[in-house]
Amino acid sequence: MKRLIIAAVATAVLAFAIYKVVIETNKAEEPIAPIAIDFVPIDLQKTRTTKAPAPIDMSKDPIKATPKIEQTAPFESFDAVNRLSDRAKAVLTDAKVLPTDLNNEAYIEFDLASLQALKTGENFDLAIPQTTETYTAEVTNVIESANGDRSIFGKVLGADGRMHNTVLTVGKDAIYGQFTAPSGNYVFESKGQYGWIAAKRDLYKSHIEHNVSAPQPKTDSAADMFAPKTDG
């Protein structure tokens, strides 16, 4: 009986060993899928001529980027035929044509080109800096004198509903005139494009005004229109 048991056990062990050998052999014979490898071509010439980046010198000052500053466009437009000017007083003083009896005046710049081109029926705006007012005048008449000066007459509708008069004479390089507004009567003069404007009530009585009620007669072109008038 014992022999039969031992023989059965031996047979089972032998069968398991044969099965193990057969299984391992089958696994070894299974084909292994090949692994695809992509080869990237290398430009050996470029590799040989490429230099390594230079080391950073930390002892030098760091590069400072300069901020871009937007340039402001120069102010060239006029909201009226005149505007405040920071240069007018100096220009008039250097030209020695600035009256010494001014009071509460404002220094301005005129749009000479626009004034010289005005025609009857057109409008123009005149600013009064002292009161921060701007009035629109309608040109009612333009008279040109023999020397080329143009006298421009106009009417202004004031805030009080009344019509007010204005008259100005525009020369080749100068302007002088009067402007009546509800706030008062203003006079103005210029040398070239630079001039001043002041209320008539603020001027001293000794101030000499130009007669702008009619065109000026032909005069010597060399005469200074700002020179004081003399009697006789």
Could you give the topology of this structure?
Layout: H1 2-29, H2 44-49, E1 82-84, H3 88-94, E2 106-110, H4 112-116, E3 123-128, E4 133-144, E5 150-157, E6 163-170, E7 174-181, E8 184-191, E9 194-199
Antiparallel strand pairs: 1-2, 2-9, 3-4, 4-5, 5-6, 6-7, 7-8, 8-9
Describe this structure in words.
The protein has helices at 2-29, 44-49, 88-94, 112-116; strands at residues 82-84, 106-110, 123-128, 133-144, 150-157, 163-170, 174-181, 184-191, 194-199. The chain is α+β, with helices and mostly antiparallel strands and 232 residues long. Strand 7 and strand 8 form a beta hairpin. The protein is rod-shaped and about 155 Å long.
Biggest sheet architecture = 9 strands, antiparallel
Helix/strand class: alpha+beta
Question: Helix-strand pattern, N to C?
Answer: HHEHEHEEEEEEE
* Average pLDDT number: 74
Termini Cα gap? 173 Å
Could you say which overall geometry the principal axes of the C-alpha atoms support? rod-shaped
* Proportion of strand residues: 25-35%
Structure summary, number of beta strands: 9
The number of helical runs is 4
Question: Unreliable segments (pLDDT under 50, ≥5 consecutive)?
Answer: 67-75, 212-232
Strand order, sheet with most strands: 1-2-9-8-7-6-5-4-3
Helix content: 10-25%
- Cα gyration radius (Å): 50 Å
